[in-house]
Write a structure and sequence with these properties.
Elements lengths: L3 E6 L5 E7 L1 H10 L3 E8 L7 E8 L5 E9 L4 H15 L6 E4 L9 H4 L4 E4 L1 H10 L3 H8 L5 H9 L3 H8 L3 H4 L8 H4 L9 H7 L3 H11 L1
Parallel strand pairs: 3-6, 6-7
Antiparallel strand pairs: 1-2, 2-5, 3-4, 4-5
Keywords: Membrane, Transmembrane, Transmembrane helix
């Protein structure tokens, strides 16, 4: 398994961005993890490095795994698209992937350009924020996340054959609520992705190559 590493420089050969993904981590994600990627970016308080990107996967036991990370001199559409293009190259498997992002993150607006066929959702934090702001909760639920009403649900259940309806009636609450996410399944989408790596950036104060090696050794 090889490490997927890309370093982007400008015309004067000065650092612009980097991307690092460990080969066995990508393999583990493809073979063993849910096809959902939590992705985000965070601002860095550095003179030259302005942004860190990070992605995290989660398995059926609610355990997280950092898939890859990247850094860039700016946080804009150009570098976000570059970062996502490198991610697509690393995944090169043809597997459908779903993305969970913060609605206010720049990288969120770039996913459809690089992964046009993927599913894309937002973290529950943004919905909780809207819920505090908006007074009409019913309108928020029905229009923003397209949640069906109870009458629609019951109507669809009635259309099933008697055998299928009996199976669903007796299947138990665990299956309805996705047994792999008991009690904490809403917390899963609250992962603050890039902060897995920010500690190193703020404390190491080393060259970019040494910083990359440090984070790679941690993963």
């Amino acid at each position: 398994m090889y490490t997927y590493t890309h370093i982007k420089t400008d015309l004067m050969d000065r650092f612009e961005a980097c991307f690092v993904a460990i080969g066995w981590v990508i393999h583990a994600f493809i073979c063993c993890f849910l096809s959902v990627i939590f992705i985000g970016s965070v601002h860095l308080r550095e003179d030259y490095l302005k942004t860190m990107f990070g992605t995290v996967a989660i398995n059926r036991n609610n355990q997280t795994l950092p898939i890859e990370f990247g850094m860039a001199v700016e946080n804009n559409l150009y570098y976000c698209i570059w970062f996502l293009m490198r991610l697509r190259e690393a995944l090169r498997h043809g597997r459908e992937v779903s993305f969970i992002t913060d609605m206010n993150d720049v990288v969120s607006s770039c996913i459809e350009h690089v992964f046009p066929d993927s599913y894309h959702g937002y973290t529950s934090k943004i919905y909780a924020h809207k819920r505090r702001i908006w007074q009409n909760i019913t309108t928020f639920v029905l229009n923003d996340i397209q949640l069906i009403t109870m009458s629609d649900f019951e109507e669809n259940i009635c259309r099933l054959t008697p055998d299928a309806r009996e199976i669903l009636t007796n299947i138990g609450h665990a299956k309805w609520a996705r047994v792999y996410f008991p009690n904490i399944r809403w917390n899963v989408v609250n992962i603050d992705v890039p902060h897995f790596f920010v500690l190193w950036v703020n404390q190491c104060n080393v060259l970019i190559i040494m910083l990359t090696e440090s984070i790679r050794d941690y993963i």
